[in-house]
Each structure stands twice: as structure tokens, then as C-alpha cells.
Design goal:
The structure holds three protein chains of three kinds. Chain B is an alpha/beta fold. Chain B has twelve helices and nine strands. Chain C has twelve helices and twelve strands. In chain C, the strands form two sheets. An eight-stranded mixed sheet of chain C has the order 3-2-6-7-8-9-1-10. Chain C starts with a strand and ends with a helix. Chains in contact: A-B, A-C, B-C. Chains A and C meet through strand 4 of A and strand 4, helix 4, strand 11, strand 12 and helix 10 of C.
Chain lengths: 277, 320, 344
């Protein structure tokens, strides 16, 4: 029997600092053992438990796409003791991960449809995975629209890659910052308001929303106003987590466990769960 | 009991209080359970007897502290020890004296159910009655009566303040406190052991701990917003029931309630593993009495010993 | 069915001990619990429901998942002998079966053994459960609320009935039949034994209180999620973990590393409970279940609503331990009654 509590050994291959405060770091990890690499199959939206021996574990969404076979990418915000230690990691260090865990964005269901991706702040990680995945399978999808908001221009993550996407004509990138800033000629305003302004058509369209709870809370009513059906809206939730396999009992919302039934839920599913918001 | 119910009814109907916290009959023989009475009709369920083991002052602290913050006027039924908790909480500014109506009831000690079942060789008790002096228990094939004094909690055996030290109303006649000269006999016995023996004894007791924190949660003196064991960044203490961490928890809790513990024994009665928690608390209380002449919660004008400083107080322990 | 005279019970237990680790009720200090048997003479066959539940045989309070030194991970050696549990009551046997649904299964991920719990399975899968029928249930017992009863054998491999003269062993599972079939030198149960079993069973069932109707509780609880009934129920709860830690079915846990980074240490899992604020408190400081009432509600929702949604059973077997230990006598039976009689 395999033992899911035992972490897979990974090596930190590349580290990139994403913001001026150095509170966000992106890590590209590579498998130490070829066997682990072969067995590790994932989809956009899934997550891993990072495991630092002596410190504990923390769950992070996978920011790379399964089409990027050479590495696993994660972006980690420094908030607690484990993430603090993660920020001390250097290229070449080894760490453990467990996963992939949870479900994923329903990319099969999205096939043939338009997809609107709405993101905020550093929660853009699994959305990056989704975008890269869809761009790699571009012919499977209709229009792809990305609405991405951050407090200030320097707080967008994956800035270089976003610039590349902006040059393409097969994806519409709409960036917005909370308040006007020097040198910013893009949109300003909160994500819900910008979404309302852009007003994407509901016609054969799926929406994925991922960001801080407050952004999700105010974006969902806008989507309903725009007449998106509840079962066409997907979001990804977070809770405190330990085992990641539906046993330890702490990440539930109602009868669902974020770690195995989620983290991706449709709004239709969430509306049936009293604790969800 | 009748007088208690009538008193509470008139407090509620006259609008002197919005809510009264008391005890009602529990679901097992020999058990009571806390009850929140907000209408006169409900007051008929109130009881007071030796089954009223909880210290209801706990409902003014912790998560429930909004009870005391509301503009609600709250009445609470108290034994002597419970009243001392209220006094402590009032002096520590957790409760507004003006908003609380203290109803004293005459206490003859509360039950230690392990002592009761011990009397009947562990047989199941199906009925329990208490006339204030004697208790009678009945089971499937037995009936036995014995003096209440023989089955009350250890904390009650040595208690010299059985009736409320601070109250607005008293059901019956409140008795004057006795002398606490001989209140610490079991502590004195414990002190006779050498340090190794004392440690071994404590380890033996605490090794049964399952870290459920019932002792902490029923304690009106233990009301930190976030307890040190509930912090994880940084985490101060290991979480397994391993003896070292368990001892750290109990000793820190003990020191944290030094000069603040009223020795009500609620912790010990709450312990599902029957750990004799009070011994260490009482050892500390004895130190506080002997060094600072302070008995916790006995007067609104007295600050808790550790929150007070007098130039002439005993400082031997600092000088070493 | 085989018959073991009382004076030969130690001999029988000794035969079990030859190949297996035997656990039986024992007094440790002031409390009763299931402990490894070293000498069969030390077993107290009259202990009713142990103070501590037997879940710890298979799911210890603190269990080492692995040890580490620097970046190296080492598995821990454990007693590999299969386990026998002797003297388990029906409620507890069913509790283990419920826990097996959580730990032993690959819930919703058929064929993916990544989601089975190896630490549970290596102990429970090979275990043989000797369950003792209750001849004298207590007033705190309410197994019959869940369609069970004092002589129910669900979750047992071998059902044991104490007839005063002898223990009658009735193999009920395939595993139990195979095991009892392999034994030699024990008499068959007599007709008189069977008559006695029938009599004690009827007597025991007669001692149970009336069962409370639980039909529809999952939906009812879900409907009441935001209702004031939870304020009423939760008012007196002091939010300790006594009920959960003493419970035979509560199984939530925490994972912790003991031993600093880069040094020697171990990763352990430890019992945890939804009653504690830290259980769901996030690194940001946000806590989805901030109030004590929210946490209390979670515990009962898990038992009587969520678990039913996920596994079709109540996560409670009516052992009554929490009834006895709750420091404020917040009786789980009263919670169920309050919920079932509330208006949605």
C-alpha cells in the first residue's frame, strides 16, 4: 500500500521574487526521483501540501500547468511560520510535497465554450495553471477572457508572462488596480466593478473566480446580475488543512471536504452548503 | 428551593434582571446542569443541592463574555466559592458589579460522584436524593444512605467559606467564614515529601491527562482571549499527551492562576480522567496566603495578590 | 458456537496471545481502558464500557507517522502481530466499523489507495474483534436509538455472551468463523447455554430505555443550521474537548512535527477536536468557526448530518461516554431531542 503521509522529495530549482515587499516568492520544484515524476499526474486547480520536516505542512495551489512537464510551480505568500521558512529556502534545497490533492477546474466541461477567468491578488496561482493549460489546448476553447485585479501594479504576479499574453490575439487580458497609480494607464477599480463594466456575454460561457474571500463575495452577485447560471460559475476555496485526504476533519464546509471534494466548487454546489461563505 | 425560585421569579418580573444563571436537574442521577432563566415561568426548574457542582461564574468569561458586556442585567446563583470567582472577575474588571445580581445559596459541599459510586462498589446508581445532610442512592438491587459529608469533593471538605462572600440576596442565612488555619492539611502532607517524591506523585497524576482542557474551560479564572496552548505561531507547547508537555500545560496554568484561583474545585470535578488537579492549586494558594496574607476573591477592595505590591511584603523568594 | 468455562478463560486468552497482540479492558490508575494483555489473570471481565474508548487501539492519541533526520525520512517499526480485542462492547465494535469507513476506505476515489490510511489499515484489517454482549446496559446507554441493542453483533468477528457459568463464543463474521473453526479442544455450546443466552438477551433489551426516533435527523439538522436552537443548545457548553476525546467515533486529528528542522524528529498525528478554536483558525487570523456555538454545532452536524450524507450512518453508537463526562451535563440525547422537536 502506498503511504500518502510520506512526502515526495523535490528540489528547489528556481526562485523568483514577485513583489517589492518580497512577501511573494515563486518556486519551481523538480522531482528528485524519476519514479515520483512519472506517478505525479495533475490538473489545473489541484494543490499540494508542502512538507518541511520539523516545521509542518501547508497547502498551496499548483501554479504550473500539467503541460509544463519539467517542473512544478508554486507561489507562496509569507503569512505564518511555515511560509516564513519557505521564504528562507534557496535554490538547490530539498523539500517534500504531498499530492496532487483535490479536484480541478472542469476543463473537459469547458471544451467548446468561452471561458472568463477572474482573479485577484496572489490567488492567481491555479488560474495561471488553467490559462497555460487552455492556451496549450487552444483549439478546444472559444474566447478566453482574463480579468485580473491587484492593489497596485507591482503586486501582479507573473508579470513577464502576463505581458507575453497581452501580445497574443487569442486571449483577452484585462488588468485592473484598486486606485490610480503613476505610470499605470490600464483600468482602475475593484474586480467586481470591472467585471460589471466588461460585462462578458453569458453565451456558452463558463466563469472561474479565484481570489481573496472579499473579492469572491462581491464578484458572485455581479455574475448573477450578468445572468450567469450558478452551475456555470466555479470558484476555489481555502480552509485550514492538515491531512489533505479527507480524514483529519478540519477543512469541511458542510458535508464536503475542501481537500477532496474541492477546492473547486460551482456556485450551484456552494449554495447548498450553509457554511460555504 | 422554593424560596430560590420565588426570589428569581420576582427579580425577573420586577425587571431587576433580564436573565438568571442557575442550575436545574441534570440527565443523570446526582447530576445538575447549568440553566439560563429569562422568564419567570422557567424559574420553576431551578434547583440547589449537592449536585450543583459547576462554578457558574465561568459564563461571564471566555466566549461568553458578551453576556457581561451587553446591557443585560444578569443574576447568578452562587455558592461560596463561586462568589469568590465573581469577586475576582469583578476586581479584574471582567464583570461590572453594577450589572450583576448575586444570589447566594447555602452550600454544604458538592458531590464527588467518584466517592458516591465508591460507596456502592461501582454499581450503577439509578436514583439519587439529597436532604442537605444525607444522601440516598438507589440502584437495581440496592438502596443506601450516607452522610453528605462523606461524599463531598475534597475542595469542599476543607472549605471555610461555604456561603457567598459577596451577594445582593441570600436564600436563608449566610454563615460567617470559618478559620482557614487548618484548611491545607493535605497540602502540608504533600510538602513533607521530598522534591523527587513530589514530582513523581504529580507525574503519576498528570500522566492520565488527555489534554481535553476541560479543567481550563470550566475555570472562571482562566479566561485569556487566546490561551497559550491555542497558539500555533509560535507554538509554545507540544500537543501530544506526552508527560513533559502535559506537565508544562498544567504547571503554567497553575502559575497563571496563582493568587487568582479560588480553589472551587470545578477543574477537578470536570476532569474526565479524575486527576487530582486541585492539590497543586491549593499548594500555590497556601503560598499566597502565607506570603502575602491574601485569600483570593474574598473582598472587592482586595486586588489579586499578583496584581498588587506592598513595600513590606515578603520577598524572600526573590532574594533566594 | 464454542463454550469456554469461566475457569478456563485465562487458558483461552493465552492461546490468543501465542500469535497475536491481545487488548482487553483494564484499570490503569483510576481509569479503565483497553490495554495490551500481559497476563490473562489481570483481565477484569466485569468492566463495563471502559472510561477511555477503544479507538486508541487502532487510532492512538498520538501516533508516529514517520521519523526524520535532516531531510531523510525513516519509517517506524511497530509490533506487527495482528491484534485481537477481547471484551469490546457492541457500541464500540460498531464505532470501529464507522472509523473504518473513514480511515479504511478510498472515499469517492475508488481504486485510488492513496486515500486509504495505512496506519489504520495495518492494524484494523487483520484484527479479530471479540465483542461482549451487554447483559446489564446502563441508564446512559442509547445504542437502541441507532437500531442496535445490547446483544447486537454488528462490527464483531466473534460475539461473546457471558452466561455466568461460561463464555459462549459465536463467530459472526467470515474472519471469526475461520478463526473459531481453527481452534481445537473446546466444547460446543449446549442447548441450555442457548436458552440462557436468549433469556439474558431479553432481560438486557428490557432494561434499555425507549428508543428515540432518529428518522430524518440529517435533513432536519441541515435545515436548522442558522436557527436559534443552536444558541439554546450551545449556551452552557464550555467548549472543552472531553466529549470528543472520550468519544468512540470522534476521529479528527492534527499533524505535528516534534523535533526541529534539520535535526532528528518525528511527524506525529494527534487527536484534535472541532471544539478547539485552533482547529480551523487560519494563518491569516481568520477563523470560520470563531464562536463556541459554531464549533459545538459542527460536532453535532458531523455526527448526525454530514456523516450520514457521506457514509449513510450516524457517527454515534450510543455508548454514553460523553453523557457521563460532560462537565456541564450537556447530554447528547437532549441535543438530538432539541433538534428533532425544533421548527425549521
Amino acid at each position: 500500500m502506498s503511504n500518502t503521509y510520506i512526502p515526495i522529495q523535490m528540489k528547489v530549482e528556481r526562485i523568483e521574487i514577485e513583489d517589492p515587499d518580497k512577501a511573494l516568492r515563486t518556486f519551481d520544484l523538480v522531482f528528485v526521483n524519476e519514479e515520483d515524476k512519472k506517478n505525479f499526474e495533475y490538473m489545473p486547480g489541484q494543490f499540494c501540501e508542502w512538507s518541511l520536516l520539523g516545521l509542518g505542512e501547508s497547502p498551496f495551489g499548483i501554479a504550473s500547468s500539467p503541460t509544463e512537464t519539467d517542473f512544478l510551480r508554486f507561489t507562496v505568500s509569507r503569512t505564518g511560520s511555515v511560509t516564513n521558512e519557505i521564504h528562507y529556502l534557496r535554490e538547490g534545497d530539498t523539500i517534500g510535497i504531498r499530492g496532487p490533492m483535490g479536484n480541478w477546474y472542469p476543463v473537459e466541461k469547458f471544451k467548446g465554450g468561452n471561458v472568463v477567468i477572474i482573479g485577484g491578488g496572489f490567488a492567481f496561482t491555479t488560474l495561471r495553471s488553467l490559462i497555460v493549460y487552455m492556451l496549450e489546448h487552444r483549439e478546444d476553447y472559444g474566447d478566453i477572457t482574463v480579468i485580473y485585479g491587484a492593489r497596485a501594479p507591482e503586486l501582479f504576479i507573473y508579470k513577464d508572462e502576463i505581458s507575453e499574453w497581452q501580445k497574443r490575439d487569442d486571449i483577452d487580458i484585462q488588468l485592473t488596480i484598486d486606485n490610480p497609480a503613476d505610470g499605470w494607464d490600464g483600468r482602475t477599480g475593484f474586480v467586481p466593478a470591472v467585471t460589471k463594466e466588461i460585462a462578458p456575454s453569458t453565451e456558452n460561457t463558463w466563469v472561474v473566480v479565484c481570489g481573496p474571500p472579499i473579492m469572491i463575495k462581491f464578484t458572485l452577485p455581479v455574475l448573477s446580475e450578468l445572468k450567469f447560471a450558478d452551475d456555470r460559475i466555479y470558484t476555489s476555496l481555502e480552509r485550514r488543512m492538515k491531512c489533505g485526504i479527507g480524514k483529519c476533519g478540519r477543512c469541511n464546509i458542510g458535508s464536503k471536504y475542501i481537500c477532496i471534494d474541492g477546492p473547486v466548487f460551482s456556485l450551484a454546489e456552494l449554495k447548498k452548503i450553509p457554511e460555504a461563505f | 428551593m422554593k424560596e430560590l425560585r420565588e426570589t428569581v421569579k420576582s427579580l425577573l418580573t420586577e425587571g431587576k434582571v433580564d436573565l438568571v444563571i442557575g442550575w436545574e436537574k441534570g440527565t443523570m442521577p446526582g447530576a445538575s446542569t447549568p440553566v439560563f432563566i429569562d422568564t419567570a415561568e422557567k424559574a420553576d426548574s431551578l434547583i440547589f443541592d449537592s449536585t450543583c457542582r459547576n462554578n457558574l461564574s465561568v459564563y461571564f468569561t471566555k466566549d461568553r463574555r458578551e453576556l457581561a458586556k451587553d446591557d443585560k442585567k444578569i443574576g447568578v446563583v452562587v455558592k461560596g466559592c463561586d462568589s469568590r470567582s465573581l469577586v475576582l472577575n469583578i476586581t479584574e474588571k471582567q464583570i461590572d458589579r453594577e450589572k450583576v445580581t448575586i444570589i447566594g445559596v447555602p452550600c454544604n459541599g458538592v458531590l464527588d460522584m467518584k466517592k458516591v459510586t465508591g460507596k456502592v462498589d461501582g454499581k450503577e446508581i439509578l436514583e439519587f436524593t439529597d436532604d442537605g445532610e444525607r444522601v440516598t442512592v438507589k440502584g437495581r438491587e440496592f438502596e443506601q444512605t450516607f452522610p453528605l459529608d462523606e461524599v463531598i469533593s475534597d475542595s469542599c471538605v476543607t472549605c471555610v467559606r461555604r456561603d457567598a462572600v459577596e451577594h445582593d440576596l441570600f436564600i436563608g442565612e449566610a454563615r460567617e467564614p470559618g478559620s482557614d488555619e487548618n484548611a491545607y492539611v493535605e497540602v502540608e502532607e504533600f510538602e513533607k515529601l521530598d522534591s523527587g517524591e513530589r514530582w513523581a506523585r504529580m507525574e503519576q497524576e498528570y500522566s492520565a491527562c488527555i489534554r481535553c482542557y476541560a479543567c481550563r474551560n470550566v475555570c472562571p479564572s482562566c479566561y485569556c482571549n487566546v490561551c497559550f496552548v491555542d497558539q500555533n505561531d509560535p507554538q509554545w507547547i507540544g500537543k501530544s499527551p506526552e508527560i513533559t508537555d502535559t506537565m508544562i500545560f498544567h504547571i503554567i496554568r497553575n502559575l497563571h492562576v496563582a493568587g487568582r484561583c479560588v480553589e472551587c474545585g470545578a477543574c477537578e470535578r470536570a476532569c474526565p480522567m479524575d486527576i487530582k488537579l486541585l492539590l497543586l492549586n491549593r499548594k500555590v494558594a497556601k503560598e499566597v496566603r502565607d506570603r502575602f496574607g491574601s485569600v483570593t476573591g474574598t473582598g472587592l477592595e482586595n486586588k489579586p495578590a499578583m496584581a498588587d505590591f506592598k513595600e513590606d511584603e515578603n520577598q524572600d523568594f526573590i532574594m533566594g | 458456537m464454542i463454550r469456554i468455562e469461566k475457569e478456563r478463560i485465562d487458558e483461552f486468552i493465552r492461546t490468543l496471545m501465542e500469535t497475536r497482540a491481545v487488548y482487553a479492558p483494564a484499570l490503569d490508575g483510576k481509569n479503565t481502558m483497553f490495554a495490551p494483555v500481559e497476563d490473562p489473570a489481570g483481565i477484569d471481565h466485569n468492566i463495563f464500557n471502559t472510561d477511555k474508548s477503544p479507538k486508541e487501539i487502532f487510532f492512538p492519541h498520538s501516533e508516529v507517522l514517520f521519523e526524520y533526520e535532516g531531510e531523510e525520512i525513516k519509517k517506524v517499526e511497530r509490533d506487527v502481530r495482528p491484534i485481537v480485542v477481547w471484551g469490546l462492547r457492541g457500541c464500540d465494535a460498531r464505532s470501529l466499523r464507522l472509523l473504518d469507513k473513514v480511515f479504511g476506505s478510498a472515499w469517492q476515489k475508488p481504486g485510488n489507495d492513496m486515500f486509504e490510511d495505512p496506519y489504520w489499515k495495518e492494524k484494523y484489517d487483520d484484527a479479530i474483534i471479540f465483542g461482549t454482549a451487554c447483559n446489564e446496559p446502563r441508564s446512559t446507554c442509547f445504542c437502541n436509538w441507532f437500531g442496535s441493542g445490547p446483544h447486537d453483533d454488528a462490527g464483531m468477528d466473534v460475539k461473546v455472551v457471558d452466561t455466568e457459568e461460561a463464555f459462549i463464543l459465536d463467530p459472526v463474521s467470515e474472519k471469526g468463523k475461520k478463526f473459531i473453526g481453527s481452534l481445537k479442544g473446546w466444547a460446543e455450546a449446549t442447548k441450555k447455554d442457548l436458552a440462557t443466552i436468549k433469556a439474558v438477551r431479553e432481560k438486557a433489551e428490557g432494561l434499555m430505555g425507549e428508543a428515540f426516533g432518529m428518522e430524518g435527523i440529517a435533513e432536519k439538522m441541515a435545515d436548522l443550521f442558522f436557527k436559534p436552537v443552536w444558541d439554546d443548545i450551545g449556551a452552557k457548553c464550555v467548549n472543552c474537548g472531553a466529549c470528543a476525546f472520550i468519544c468512540s467515533t470522534c476521529h479528527c486529528f492534527d499533524v505535528q512535527d516534534e523535533g526541529k528542522k534539520g535535526k532528528k524528529g518525528k511527524r506525529i498525528r494527534i487527536w484534535d477536536t472541532c471544539m478547539f478554536p485552533l482547529f480551523t483558525k487560519e494563518a491569516s487570523g481568520h477563523n470560520p468557526r470563531d464562536m463556541s456555538k459554531d464549533r459545538l454545532r459542527q460536532r453535532f452536524m458531523h455526527k448526525f448530518s454530514y456523516f450520514i450524507s457521506n457514509y449513510d450512518e450516524h457517527l454515534c453508537t450510543g455508548c454514553g461516554r460523553c453523557v457521563s463526562v460532560c462537565p456541564v451535563n450537556l447530554d447528547i440525547r437532549d441535543v438530538v431531542r432539541a433538534v428533532m422537536t425544533s421548527e425549521a
